[in-house]
């Protein structure tokens, strides 16, 4: 059992949770994730390790409560217990020698991006961040992103904060101006990663993405998380979740992400019904 030490609501349905998990915290590296179970019969929830403190023995998780399992997890109070926290899983990201980085993030993609920014920052890289949200109320951890960035460009769909438009607008503008970057990091919804990777490909800029394919065991055994990278089958849970954005078959990823939609909707409907009866 793993104790919840802190819980904060960051935006509607998005929580930051600090959990006591000393063994995982001691080994976690940027790019790793955990699989969490709320109870003995609970579903397995893959979550990025957004932060770890080896001395305190804690992990920071960012949870977007989108369905039954994430809502159950988010409902655990401070002092309550999580049944399982399995990890660190996945291949840690190789932190190279890139000196200038352009990081593009959207939605919950901030959680996997932050550890990469911290690691590159530690190596002295200069970072320009482009952070997109549908509207200003959906920004999370904006101060942390700003603290790790030399420049932060905010973009909202409705123009309620920063530029109005999509993250790919300032990305294209900066690259088209001839500004030099060694690496792009693009993490967020699959369509956003696909669009950002298409832009960076035009400018021949190496791009790292983090794939949130459906995961079950998280150990390379079930095949649930398989993705096509340059036409080759890879397992996001062990070969990733970070991959070369120019090599990912995003259309296939998006189709596979929807495989269990009927079951998820059923589970959501049952939970809503249970909630109404309670
Ligand atoms: C490597 C990785 C890291 C992730 N990191 C985070 C994170 O830091 N914060 C966060 O909020 N979410 C993260 N996710 C997504 C998170 O795991 C899902 O939102 C969660 O499992 C949804 O479960 P649910 O029962 O609440 O929702 P459901 O109603 O079951 O599903 C809602 C949506 O979540 C996705 N999903 C459902 N089950 C899984 C599964 N087993 N594996 C992956 N995706 C699933 C599907 O796209 C689905 O449409 C990550 C996923 C992966 C693969
Ligand atoms: S989650 Fe089963 S192989 Fe990756």
Annotated CATH homologous superfamily of the largest domain = Nucleotide-binding domain of ferredoxin-NADP reductase (FNR) module
Shape: globular
Helix content: 25-40%
| Strand content bin | 25-35%
Q: Treating each run of at least 4 consecutive H or I residues as one helix, how many helices?
A: 9
CATH architecture of the largest domain: 3-Layer(aba) Sandwich
Main sheet attributes: strand count, strand direction, barrel closure: 7 strands, mixed
What does this entry look like structurally?
The longest helix has 17 residues. Helix 5 runs parallel beside helix 6. This protein folds into three domains: 88 residues, Translation factors (Elongation Factor Tu (Ef-tu), domain 3, Beta Barrel), CATH 2.40.30.10; 107 residues, 3-Layer(aba) Sandwich (Rossmann fold); 50 residues, Ribbon (Dihydroorotate dehydrogenase B (pyrk subunit), domain 3). 30% of the residues lie in helices and 31% in strands. 43% of the residues are buried. Strand 3 and strand 4 form a beta hairpin. With 278 residues, it is α/β, with parallel strands linked by helices. The chain has nine helices and 17 strands. FE2/S2 (inorganic) cluster (FES) binds next to loops.
Characteristics of this structure?
9 helices; 278 residues; binds FE2/S2 (inorganic) cluster; seven-stranded mixed sheet; Rossmann fold; 3 domains; binds flavin-adenine dinucleotide; Elongation Factor Tu (Ef-tu), domain 3; alpha/beta; 31% strand; five-stranded antiparallel sheet; Dihydroorotate dehydrogenase B (pyrk subunit), domain 3
């Amino acid at each position: 059992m793993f104790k919840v030490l802190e819980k904060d609501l960051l935006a509607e349905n998005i929580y930051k949770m600090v959990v006591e998990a000393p063994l995982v915290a001691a080994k976690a590296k940027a790019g790793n994730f955990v699989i969490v179970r709320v109870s003995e019969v609970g579903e397995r929830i893959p979550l990025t390790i957004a932060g770890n403190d080896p001395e305190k023995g804690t992990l920071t998780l960012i949870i977007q409560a989108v369905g039954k399992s994430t809502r159950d997890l988010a409902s655990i109070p401070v002092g309550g217990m999580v049944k399982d926290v399995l990890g660190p899983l996945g291949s840690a990201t190789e932190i190279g020698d890139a000196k200038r980085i352009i990081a593009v993030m959207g939605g919950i993609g901030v959680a996997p991006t932050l550890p990469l920014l911290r690691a590159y920052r530690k190596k002295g890289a200069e970072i320009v961040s482009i952070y997109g949200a549908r509207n200003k109320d959906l920004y999370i951890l904006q101060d942390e992103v700003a603290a790790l960035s030399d420049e932060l460009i905010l973009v909202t769909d409705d123009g309620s904060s920063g530029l109005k438009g999509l993250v790919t607008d300032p990305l294209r503008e900066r690259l088209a101006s001839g500004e030099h970057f060694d690496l792009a990091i693009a993490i967020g919804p699959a369509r956003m990663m696909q669009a950002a990777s298409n832009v960076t490909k035009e400018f021949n800029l190496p791009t790292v993405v983090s794939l949130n394919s459906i995961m079950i065991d998280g150990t390379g055994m079930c095949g649930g998380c398989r993705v096509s990278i340059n036409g080759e089958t890879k397992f996001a849970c062990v070969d990733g979740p970070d991959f070369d954005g120019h090599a990912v078959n995003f259309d296939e990823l998006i189709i596979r992400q929807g495989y269990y939609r009927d079951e998820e909707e059923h589970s959501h409907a049952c939970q809503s019904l249970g909630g109404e009866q309670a």
